[in-house]
Write a structure and sequence with these properties.
Rossmann fold
Length: 392
């Protein structure tokens, strides 16, 4: 669940992303995010169909780009699958460049260690380099995907999973809560406007990079037609606790007890927006948009729910106790959101004090999860999108 920065290096979103990544520079992001493997597995059929439509290279290398890659662990199965299918359609020694993109402070060390087989992957997975030891070249680009990340017209196949919901700026405070998905309508509208401009810029840059005939697949957090989103899927039969509601509740308890100030609570805003299907479609169907003028077209879009693996394991009786469930479940929430809580606290506090406050917050969340495991779970709601590049 990568955090993407904007071109403006002073933005809250970028600062939040930087803090998140520097805390996860040992491969622990992959180990803490079991559900992200399931999301990508949920996209395999979409990826296969999209790749089948791509014309294979003749006399040149094939470029595969992974945007918002984090430490590269969660997408490693799909990267291996794409390389194998490309070589099935071309030759066993077809050269492939795997281009990993993320912000400059991303843990690229663990990324390279994972691809080289030097860090353990969950489930006995191995790197694609074990299967394809020659002719596959791993490159990384430390550049925000709000900018062009590859030379014009060079990418054959792109992918991005759970990365493009981070906004480039916080358009306004969110009164009484922490995330725009639970904010008043006028606040949600401002986040939607910011997110719309960001999405248009992201697509414009991808349109520049892609070859004519290339495909880009994305799984982005969304709000579906039932009003469900990450951590709130009750209408689909998911857990009853609203994750973002609990974030706000436990953070407010620290405010009300005097542990944090009202100003710090108000400064804690997730720089995110979960788009609707119509919001995803807009710049791809608008003939005046930069992406459309550059030849980017929507092929398919659909929403899917991916159940939380921890909640599923609890329901199946796989945990020895409620406490064991909570200790296993909460780290996946921490892996992508801790930076937001740290950023909300005053920098006049010593770092140790800020860290202690955030640990106290997570202690509250873990206790609540242990008290009622059946209510808890971070089900994913994604829009799975395929776009193609036509001649401009």
């Amino acid at each position: 669940m990568a955090a993407a920065s904007a071109a403006d290096s002073s933005s809250f979103a970028e600062k939040s992303s930087i803090k998140s990544r520097t805390m996860l520079g040992d491969g622990s992001y992959t180990l803490a995010t079991k559900g992200c493997f399931d999301v990508i597995a949920n996209a395999m059929d979409i990826a296969d169909s999209a790749l089948d439509a791509v014309e294979m290279p003749s006399g040149r290398h094939f470029v595969l780009a992974d945007y918002g890659t984090a430490d590269g662990g969660t997408s490693i199965d799909l990267v291996s699958r794409v390389i194998g299918k490309v070589r099935e359609r071309t030759s066993a020694d077809q050269e492939v460049i795997v281009l990993y993109e993320d912000i400059p402070t991303n843990p690229f060390g663990p990324l390279f260690q994972m691809t080289q087989g030097m860090l353990a992957l969950p489930g006995g997975r191995t790197s694609f380099l074990a299967k394809h030891p020659t002719g596959v070249f791993v490159h990384a680009v430390g550049t925000s995907f709000y900018r062009q990340c590859a030379p014009t017209g060079t990418v054959d196949f792109g992918m991005s999973f759970t990365a493009m919901h981070w906004t480039s700026a916080v358009p306004c405070p969110i009164p009484g809560t922490l995330h725009s998905v639970m904010a008043p309508e006028e606040v949600r509208a401002r986040y939607a406007a910011q997110s719309g401009a960001d999405w248009a810029k992201i697509l414009e840059q991808r349109a520049k990079e892609m070859r004519p005939g290339a495909r880009l697949i994305m799984a982005n957090f969304c709000v579906d037609d039932k009003g469900c989103y990450l951590g709130y899927t009750t209408p689909h039969g998911g857990p009853s606790a609203n994750m973002h509601g609990l974030f706000a509740k436990h953070w407010a308890e620290l405010r009300d007890s005097g542990r944090i100030t009202a100003e710090e609570f108000d400064a804690t805003n997730f720089p995110q927006h979960y788009r609707t299907v119509d919001e995803f479609k807009a710049p791809l169907e608008d003939e005046t948009s930069a992406a459309h003028r550059l030849g980017l077209r929507l092929e398919t879009i659909e929403t899917r729910r991916t159940p939380c693996p921890f909640a599923t394991a609890w329901a199946n009786g796989e945990y020895s106790s409620p406490e064991a469930f909570a200790k296993d479940y909460v780290p996946t929430l921490r892996s992508w959101s801790t930076s937001v809580f740290v950023s909300g606290l005053s920098e006049s506090r010593p770092v140790e004090e800020r860290n202690a406050i955030v640990e106290e917050f997570w202690g509250k969340y873990e206790a609540a999860a242990a008290a009622d495991p059946a209510a808890h779970g971070m089900d994913y709601i994604h829009a799975f999108i395929v776009v193609r590049k036509e001649s401009a």
